[in-house]
Amino acid sequence: MSVAATPSVTAVPAPRLDWPFLIASCLALVVLIALVLLDGQPAAAALLILGFALGAVFLKAEFSFTASWRRLIVRGQADGFLGGLLLIAIAAAAIVPVAALVPGFGGAIAPIGPSLIVGAFVFGIGMQLANGCGSGTLYTAGGGSGRMIITLAFFIAGSVIGSLHLPAFLRRGGIDPILASNYFGPWGGLAATWASLAVAALIGIAIAKRRGVSITPSPKIVFGAIAIGLLCIAVFAAGHHPWSVTFGFTVWGAKIATLFGADLSHAEFWQWAGPKRALGDSILSDTSSLTDLGMIFGAMAAAAASAPFARNPWPPLKSLLAAAVGGLLMGWGARLGFGCNIGAFIGGVASGSLHGWVWFLAALPGCMIGIKLRPLFGLSRE
Amino acid sequence: MRLVYAIVFVIAFTALVAEHLTSPSGGRPVSPEDFVGACAPCGAPCPSVQKK
Amino acid sequence: MLSASAVRRVFVAAVLAAAAVAAVPASAAPVEPLVSAQWLKDHLRDPQIAVIDVRMGAPVYDAGHIPGAVHSDYDKAGWRVSRNGVLQPPNKAELEKLIGETGIDEDSHVIVVPAGVSATDFGAAARVYWTLKVAGHPAVSILDGGFAAWQAAAYPVDTRKTVPTPKIFSLRFDEGLLAELAGVENNEHATLVDARPASYFNGKEKAAASKAYGHIPGAINLDSASFYDPATNRLRPKDQLARIAAKLPTGPVVTYCNTGHWAATDWFVLSAVLGRPDVRLYPGSMVEWSANPSRPIASSRTRLDDLKKALGLGS
Question: Cα(C301)–Cα(C199) distance, rounded to whole angstroms?
Fold first, then answer.
């Protein structure tokens, strides 16, 4: 998290390389790459490296969904929001057609119902209290924020609790996924996806114009959007499904719970094929975990390469409480809502799945409530 | 914060590597498992299937 | 001078006596699965005794063998045939030919002679024994202690090659001794017995021809070496064998290993020595089972084992 630079008369010391953390993060990446290559899994190595790149890009571009949506809601400033839409448009160019045309590749889909809506709404509250969503938590935690480690820990815990509640929520009803390429074909589906993004962009621009605020994204945001969009395509290519962040947290939490004696053999979620396999196998065999880990190390390396690492003092206790509550709400909400900004919003919309937009429209009011709650914890309103 | 961070990092990384090494080896090249019939990346079943 | 009727009566009696003798099976005494070197020495000149020396390599045989023993190399004579990379028993036609050309027919009492220096070469004899039993041969025994026991007793040894007199052997296929892949895949009642050392069972090492580490799910590990006493180079006494085998539930059993070699020892102990009914050998074993990734495998191998292998510290 960067603080707005104040002009100073005294010379600012040039950024120093924080060698211990730079070496630690790069060494950690190399060790994990070696382990997965020894396992004969080059795709896993690719996901680690791509995650590393994502972490560095997110940190250098300060690409925060949480802050940009807060800016949009509070001030009508649409720059970050538009950057996000550009990112999705780039990713969709590959994901929509390939998911429809190439066997073995799938987009992010989800049923539309109470689970999705409640989950996204609760996630929206949580992300504003935590100061970060899924990707935000990873890159700021990796970037040296001790507060974000707390958020991450509670995110993980909330994810496991969410996994226990998800099956019951699904039984309350809903409709099967609605995928644009099923109705319009691969290229029609892409056109429809781009059209929906254009509509969202126009609405964002209209909001900004009405509030008299600039809509031009900064070069950092544009660079970040393009780079992340391309990296999304690469992650999709390596993992055969769109980038996911929160599934990894759910698996980590379940493994920790099992280590401390929890018996998940009667939990319905953990009998589904994907979760069951992920729980029984190594963390490094889960695509979501691989990009998550890569992202932490990439953000750490990028942060350590430009400034002293983790030198900020701990924030006050109220702020840490918000971090914990926010993390818990995000974990629970992401499991019910089928992901966070990355997995559900970007993944869903870039796959041409309607649930991506439903997620966004449910998360937004959650964000509004979360923003209103921020001052209770001593956090700024904007 | 720096010290806490370093300790957490080392513990977490050690736990990660230990978890990986104690996980079962397939003994043969792993083939990716499809989430066959799943309605979401986490493997949730479709509402149309659930209504049965 | 005998009367014509007296001659006729004597003649009829002689024919009946000859018929009675001919009708009695080759050895009137019951055939033991294991015979001692002493027993073999005493019966070596019996006409129906057919000694086959299954040690591997002609030089070993040429250096000295039991007088009259025919060399039937376990590795090369055709007791196991490679099909699609899996060692299998010969088919019915091949088996009839192999047995007949070794000088064996239904009247023979076959004595299988291993080297007698390890549990593994006993397994070779047990596999040959099993193959003969699958072919329906009524009288087979293994020389307890093998050629080493014969030499230790200082019995005469021959260096001249014994050329077998080819015979006609009519196969009577006993399918109740053989388990095939489909039977094992659909198995519901038989206990699977894995005859390999624990390290193979657990997945810490594997046969080179196997494509996976571990065992067939549900199998019980009964290392064939546990039946063998390396101090005496013989199978352990029957009561000890029974005690070791007691951990198996009653009911049908299928033994297997990597290529059906070690499994033959387990089969021999359970079926021939302990007399358990319904014991089969699955000759394809792990090499066949692991060939297709769709067949499940259970193992306690970890990625640490893989790492050790990659670093040259394990297998």
Answer: 10
